[in-house]
Write a structure and sequence with these properties.
Bound molecules: ligand AR6
CATH superfamily: Leucine Aminopeptidase, subunit E, domain 1
Strand order of the largest sheet: 1-6-5-2-4-3
Shape: globular
CATH architecture: 3-Layer(aba) Sandwich
Helix content: 25-40%
Number of strands: 6
Number of helices: 5
Number of domains: 1
Strand content: 5-15%
Structural class: alpha/beta
């Protein structure tokens, strides 16, 4: 098995779970969070709003993860995680970002999921330097895949060609050569069977 890198819109993937780069309120936002809520429909926001608040405005602390259904998405579930806001690298940003990947994979395993797709958590509005974030994404996902059976399919989704290349080279530095061309449909993601709820 390899970590797959795919370029495109994560909301189109028919995987067991897509990961959302959310904020601590889990009440939606811009970027990939906005795209996921638009594609999933209003029931997603309703389920998020019903999750317990740990303190006012915080349903999911930074570095943690919460699961919901996927509703109108082709993905069955959404795992909402909250990446760190990049400051200067001295505020545990790397550890918190690693937690987003690792805890999402732990939750996916616990839920019995076999395929999961991650966006570039924290690399948009939250300002995490792309090369450093890609190294963390590659390190955590490869370490997981090398030590666990499920989820066996792990896809790093790049929204543009530059991110795609950075992911490929991050994986290459960790011993995994890249061989998926950008812009092609994700080759091994099956269409969602019509009988799935
Ligand atoms: N598919 C895949 N990747 C995407 C998509 C998409 N449809 N749309 C954007 N990206 P961001 P963050 C990429 O800003 O930095 C929200 O308001 C994007 O190019 O979505 O973790 C939340 O509510 C970038 O590489 O997430 C939070 O408040 C990556 O996804 C805050 O933004 C992440 O960019 C989270 O900021």
């Amino acid at each position: 098995m390899k970590i797959e890198v795919w370029q495109g819109d994560i909301t189109t993937l028919a995987v067991d779970a897509i990961v959302n780069a959310a904020n601590e309120s889990l009440l939606g936002g811009g970027g990939v969070d906005g795209a996921i809520h638009r594609a999933a429909g209003p029931q997603l926001l309703a389920e998020c709003a019903a999750l317990p608040e740990l303190r006012p405005g915080v349903r999911c602390p930074t570095g943690e993860v919460r699961a919901t259904a996927g509703y109108n998405l082709p993905a069955r579930h959404v795992l909402h995680t909250v990446g760190p806001v990049w400051n200067d690298g001295t505020r545990a940003e790397a550890e918190l970002l690693a937690n987003c990947y690792w805890k999402s994979l732990q939750l996916a395993e616990k839920m019995g999921l076999r395929s999961i797709a991650f966006p570039a958590i924290s690399c948009g509005v939250f300002g995490y330097p792309l090369h450093q974030a890609a190294q963390i994404a590659a390190t955590e996902t490869l370490a997981w895949q090398r030590s666990h059976r499920e989820p066996q399919r792990i896809i790093l989704v790049a929204y543009n060609a530059a991110t795609f290349k950075v992911y490929q080279s991050a994986l290459a530095t960790l011993g995994q050569p890249g061989d998926v061309a950008p812009g092609l449909p994700c080759p091994t993601v099956e269409p969602r069977p019509a009988w799935l709820p």
